[in-house]
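debug: dumping io for the single-chain case to check the tokenizer round-trip. Nothing else runs in this session.
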Amino acid sequence: MKKGYESALLARPSARQLRWQETEFYALISYGLPVFTGKQYGDGHTPASMFWPEDMNTDSWCETAKNAGMRGIVLTCKHYDGFCLWPSDYTDYSVKSSNWMEGEGDLVKLVADSCRRYGLKFGVYIAPWDRHEATYGSGKPFDDFFCHLLTELLTNYGDVFCVWLDGICGSDEKRVQDYDWARYYRTIRELAPDAAICFRGPDVRWGGNERGFTRSSEWSCVPAYLGVDEKGNSPTAASKKKLTLMDVDLGSRKAVKDETDFIWYPCEVSVPMRAHWFFDEADKYSSKTKDKLIKLYLNTVGNNANLMLGLSPNKRGVLDDTDTQILTSFGKDLGIFFGFNLVTDCASITASSEYDESHSVRKLLADDRKGSWRPADGDKKPEIIVEFREEELFDKIMIGENTANGQHVEAFEVFFLNEKGKWKKISEGETVGYKKICGVAPMKAKKVKIVFTEFRSFFEINKLQIN
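debug: decoded output
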């Protein structure tokens, strides 16, 4: 039996995982009774009548998300307090018992419809922990109830790109529910087969913190025991030293040398725009600045992870003007940073070798971006050289692997040709994965070279951008 990285080569993403990764950057809209009580965690006893947003405008949420460069929105359809943002047939603790829209409102529908109008993907967040529902802690009766809620969300609001299952089981409760994860997953797979199950699920793993910190090397293929299977179980670790999702190294040769079983388990980084997830007046001056958002984006989306940024509309049902202005300005900067590609205007692009004609380096210039470059098998240090027609100013280099065939690059270096005709190193990295963005000091150059110094068996590059 193969061990370590050789076994990791067999890990491949599913179609739903690939689609999820392509979403890259999206919002988690945290809204519900906590906005009106000022408490981040509801106790399930707050009257539904307290939910009363005066100026609910979900189109404005989507407009802000779109302007910020986001590609989707996930809505907290039910948080720990059990209050549902849609008029469920299985509980009265929902918007139908509020005074908002005279009890006829459906916030899930409003957000889903707004997402479609603005070309955004729609996802649902739902927590099994329920501090209101009487059947919580009863076993199957609660599982029946929760699957009814899942069924409503996944049949009445169109396509969803992800189901974000919050796996927390409150420790302050006398009632404890042993969640039937296998049944929850089965329900989701039957009703929304294209949706990725995130956080507490088999498709996407948590980044390990809510502060936006990321690993310098982010591997999507990790030991299988770090995830769960379709029954909600985690395999037994083969090695004596078991990794956790909090470790800084989950996939290097050294870290996985004794492992034999791997899965494709890409990383999602979730962090709120403000100090808390739900709106709180005290957080008014805690909004992340544009510069912090840019750094966060480069360290997540630019480091083989997806970024879910928490946005929190206020009691009126609108985002604070400060947040909207920061996000809009941030989105404009993203457009400036990545809205063009010097590579497509270059005079030439060459490679040290090519696996075959169908994997030519010229594929990186194709408009459809469906092709990829793969070096010949005997090429020990493959390289790409981009030559511009004249000197160009740039400060970012983006590289991406064709992760449909796995993640293989372990180390690379970036050079430019200086005025003395010598190659000078300006950046280096370890993993590439779906996308790696290397920031460099602004410079002018006519030639740029990328050398792949370490990799597993083979690799394919399908993205190359210089800005």
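debug: round-trip ok. Residues 321-338 form the longest helix (18 residues).
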